[in-house]
Amino acid sequence: MLNTLIKPVAPNMYRYDEFDAQFVTERVNQFAGQVARRLSGELTEDQFKPLRLMNGLYLQLHAYMLRIAVPYGTLSSKQMRKLAHIARTYDKNFGHFTTRTNLQFNWIKLVDVPKILRELADVEMHCIQTSGNCVRNVTADQFAGATDEEIEDPRPLAEIIRQWSSLHPEFVFLARKFKIAVGATEKDRAALQWHDMAVQIVKNAQGRVGYKVMAGGGMGRTPYVAHVMSEFVEREDILAYLEAVLRVYNQDSRRDNIHKQRIKILINTIGPEEMRRRVAREFEELKRMGTLQLPQDELDRITAYFAPPKFETGLPDTIPDAGPDFANWAATNVHKHKAPGYAIATITLKTPGQVPGDATSEQMDVIADLMDQFSVGEVRVTHEQNLVLPHVRKQDLPAIYAKLKELDFAAPNAGLITDIIACPGLDYCDLANARSIPIAQSIAKKFENLDRQHEIGELKIKISGCINACGHHHAGHIGILGVDKKGVEFYQLILGGSGAEDASIGEIMGPGFGEHEIADAVERVVNVYLKTRKPGERFLDTYRRLGMAPFKDAAYEKVAA
Amino acid sequence: MLTANRLRDGDVLYRKGSGWVLMLSDGEVYREQAAADAALAAATAELARNEFVAPYLFEVREVGGKIIPVKEREIIRAAGPTVHPHTGKQAGQFHA
Amino acid sequence: MTKLIKSGAYAQDTFVPVADDAALPEGAVLVSLARFQKDREALLARNTPIGVKLQSSENPETLGADINHFSLIALEFPKFRDGRAFSWARMLRTRLGFTGEIRAVGDFLYDQVNYQHRVGFDAWEVPDNFTIEMFNHALTEMTNVYQPSSDGKKTIRELRAGK
After folding, report:
1. Are A546 and A538 in contact (CB under 8 A)?
2. Tens digits of per-residue pLDDT, A350-402?
3. Do A167 and C87 touch (CB under 8 A)?
4. How many domains does the structure of chain C reveal?
5. How many CA atoms lie within 13 A of A35 on its CB side?
6. In this predicted model, what pLDDT tens digit does every residue of A189-212 receive, in sequence order?
7. Class of A424-560 per CATH?
């Protein structure tokens, strides 16, 4: 739905040149050929499956699901409108923003996919390597380029890594998926330590900027937090270093047990020191070979795409007074921007009762308008299934809020207990054991009262419908894992996880709770926190101080009675 | 019962005779293991037609004259997502 | 049955595969790593080309200094999803400096041929119905590449810089 009064704005972000455009087009043609060969039977399903996965296409519970890449979470308004169009034309009018900042459509037909991919290519989007045993979407801090906390914008490096990993001939048939994240701040908003590999932009003792590389984090059946592979890799060496890690992984990972094939298993089997030794050996050779060196002028060239927008000067630098509802929203959903007069605004897709992370095509179109009107045409997707308008003028915040209210995306709950992450779960996913979305909805409804939410403060609930942990339950302050106990859905509580710079793996409490018990159990756990916390302690802090015991006692108290 | 997905569009299918239907209520119930195994074997042999994929058997039971899957997963697969009741077969959208 | 593709055409396979427990015939032979390690002296004493077939779990570094005795190294794909041989081929061409034939054998897809070609494979044992046309088409589906590999193909970055 085009609003002719709003002029589309093209944000500063990576733009395809003729090579990128040709690459994506040829990839679409290649996949169209693979679809034809599948339909004719030239390819069996077993052969076709990894090929379609590497083009983002799953076969789920009800239909095919297509996962569209949103590199480092950055979207233009033009791209957002195209996603809305695809939702309307090829799906059932809505899409789902994921915990890897991608977008998923749930009702796709295989025969439509080549068409959809061509439409995406028109706006410089694709589905390349959003699934499959290969390097996946590279994610980054959603405040990149807007926060004053960063050493530099992590997205240029993320873009360089994206290109380097796209159809890398050596690494398209890895043992398992490989997820990479890039950060540039001490505060970790991208869950770096939970990734197969992560790069943190750092400064060394001499003040020179370089990269700390970590590897071996991961969720799933056996969660691990990443180990440091190198405290400092020089800028020009970074691709050689990352390639060294991937090469060791590809060569040395097990291939005999699908549950033991992530890099986290390799590193924790041989030990991080041995891993570092093997990586160092590959790295030294690659560096000597020289073909992967990243020259400063190339880094500068890519960085120029991400130049900050021309910020206005002389703007009022206070958040306007626009009533108590707006003030509540500003308190949680508005964050400090590096430019005076500007702010970063979070759009939580978590109004209590909503499906977390979902947006209808109408909502997407209105968000595109908001992007053009107020945020230089740009939005970011977060791994917590929310959206961020990165560059808004403080004086525009009330107008933005008013529009979000019309959209029903104005919940003032960023980071609060109702800002829940939930995977699609058994409602959609072929792998799931239990539904997760209704649990998120019931918990959010239970804690809807805003005063209560503020009393509780920061509390990250993350819900997964199965052990694959797409809901990141291992990293939840309160994590919930759906399990199947003799055909009935049960929900285990996991406490004390964190996806931030203080990364930790949550601890399983014990036997699961039924569908109608879990929200009450969560409430009892929260009440223990409220009763025992010391001043300044978040839930996570109180848990870390007291341990599982008092929370466990309270959680099972009612059940035992 | 036996279910699969149509290859070209992902539609959920249920076996009836030597063909497929869209609604679980129209599908064939195999009351004996041998019949169920035979149906799966027949479908597996037909995979080479490249019309459907991933056939598998699942349990149902009779409740008040109605055939209902035993597992939650199959109930949801037959009806549609519980969180979007206006979509899927439950809303008359028999095709994906 | 299978055919051999080399240099973009069907080629005669001059190597005779020899089972681990079979006697060595005259002429060029292709043996397993285990067989080579067992009969190393005998094999090296012959004046005819030797090929070794490595399983996906066998690191080519195991060949050590003997690598220069081989005219052919066949890398097995036990299942097309097992992508270790991509790294083995790359290692053979870089660290180990192997300049002989690297042959892809086993279960691999048309869709993997281009990647194999890039990392250093130069021969393919393919099913009978795999045509030269298909082979050539596989190499042209993606005109340009982002990353350097053993094929020496110019990367997009180099093309952008007008190199």
Report:
1. no
2. 999 999 999 999 999 999 999 999 999 999 999 999 999 999 999 999 999 99
3. no
4. 1
5. 21
6. 999 999 999 999 999 999 999 999
7. alpha beta
- The encoded tokens of residue C118 equal 């890039």
Domain spans in chain A, listed from the N-terminal domain onward:
154-303, 424-560
Helix (H, G, I), strand (E, B) or coil at A422: strand
Those residues with Cβ within 8 angstroms of residue A247's Cβ, 6 or more apart along the chain or in another chain: A170, A282, C87, C90
CATH topology of domain A154-303: Sulfite Reductase Hemoprotein; domain 1 (3.30.413)
Scanning C121-140 for CB atoms below 8 A from A yields none
The CATH code of the domain that includes C32 is 3.20.20.70
Structure-token pair, residue A498:
């964190």
Of the CA atoms within 13 Å of residue C23, those in its CB half-sphere come to 2
H or E, element range at A295: none
The parent domain of residue C81 ranges over 2-160
Given an 8 Å threshold on Cβ–Cβ distance, is B84 in contact with A427? Answer: yes
Structure token digits, residue A34: 């693979």
Of A17, A19, A251, the CB nearest to C87: A251
Helix-then-strand count for chain C, H and E? 6, 8
Query: Are there at least 3 beta-carbon pairs closer than 8 Å between A and C?
Result: yes
Contact A39 B8 (CB under 8 A): yes
Question: Mind spelling out the 3-state secondary structure of A498-552?
Answer: ECCCCCECCEECCCCEECCCHHHHHHHHHHHHHHHCCCCCCHHHHHHHHCCHHHH
Phi, psi dihedral angles at A139 (to 5 degrees)? -110, 165
Which residues have a Cβ under 8 Å from the Cβ of A306 and sit 6 or more positions away?
Answer: A12, A13, A14, A145, A153, A155, A156, A159
Q: Global pTM?
A: 0.97
Close Cβ partners of A475 (under 8 Å, ≥ 6 residues apart): A191, A194, A219, A460, A462, A497, A498, A499, A503, A505, A506
Neighbours of chain C (3+ CB pairs under 8 A): A
Sketch the domain layout of chain B as residue ranges: 2-91
Structure tokens at A527: 């009440």
Q: Six-digit token pair at B82?
A: 């519980």
Locate A478 and state its tokens: 């309160």
